[in-house]
Design goal:
about 220 residues; alpha+beta; Beta-Lactamase; five-stranded antiparallel β-sheet; about 20% strand; DauR-like_HTH; DauR-like
Length: about 220
């Protein structure tokens, strides 16, 4: 009688099956979540076989042709890091591992796409904090009234000059408003960035980006 074993036998992975790399994709995506996705491409069908932590809104079964165009030749096993742009304009840093069989033939790609937006926002925040250390005195008005009321008045003046409503502001209007507030010293206020982001319906990172450009344009 054959001896029974407690541990079930696992099926041997089929060579050239890209789905054997799914646990690796999930492990990397879990470690870097929510800032990175891992995409497995099947070069035999030139389609996406698997996506872990999907931030690019692509579909499994979709074409891999765009990815192949981005990375070019597959002469090395690791390609990158190289820049990519997500569907919503966010900048990504990507790296690709080429999957080969025992004969050295390529059959798949494992691509990691990392969202740089949180890093850029943190960098901009640190830059602003460093700038605040050398900032001059705050406007007197900020000590004599509630700062939110003072900021609201400055925004109302800006809107009145342009004949606009806050809900109708375009990207260039946001940039001009933030430049005006920077020129008048309002960014000395500690909590101004999240307050402006909420009022204008834009992200904090966008406020920081407009502010950085306004400071860079100063004579």
């Amino acid at each position: 009688m054959p001896r029974k074993t407690d541990a079930p036998r696992r099926a041997k992975p089929i060579e050239g099956d890209v789905l054997q790399f799914v646990p690796i994709a999930e492990a990397v995506a879990t470690l870097l979540k929510p800032h990175a996705e891992v995409v497995i491409h099947d070069l035999r069908t030139q389609t996406i076989a698997y996506i872990a932590n999907n931030i690019s809104r692509r579909d499994v079964g979709g074409s891999s042709l765009a990815e192949l165009k981005d990375i070019g030749e597959l002469g090395t096993d690791v390609i990158g890091p190289y820049p990519k742009t997500n569907f919503d304009g966010r900048q990504l840093k990507s790296i690709t591992a080429v999957l080969r069989n025992s004969g050295g033939e390529t059959f798949g790609l494992l691509c990691i796409n990392f969202d740089l937006a949180p890093i850029e926002a943190a960098r901009d925040a640190l830059t602003l904090l460093a700038a605040f250390q050398g900032a001059g005195t705050q406007p007197t008005a900020l000590f004599n009234a509630d700062w939110q009321e003072t900021v609201n008045t400055a925004i109302a003046d800006f809107l009145g000059e342009r004949g606009l409503a806050a809900s109708a502001l375009a990207k260039e209007d946001h940039a001009a408003l933030i430049e005006r507030l920077e020129q008048e010293g309002y960014f000395s206020i500690r909590n101004l960035v999240p307050y402006l982001a909420r009022l204008l319906g834009i992200s904090r990172a966008t406020v920081y980006n407009h502010l950085r450009r306004a400071r860079q344009s100063k004579p």
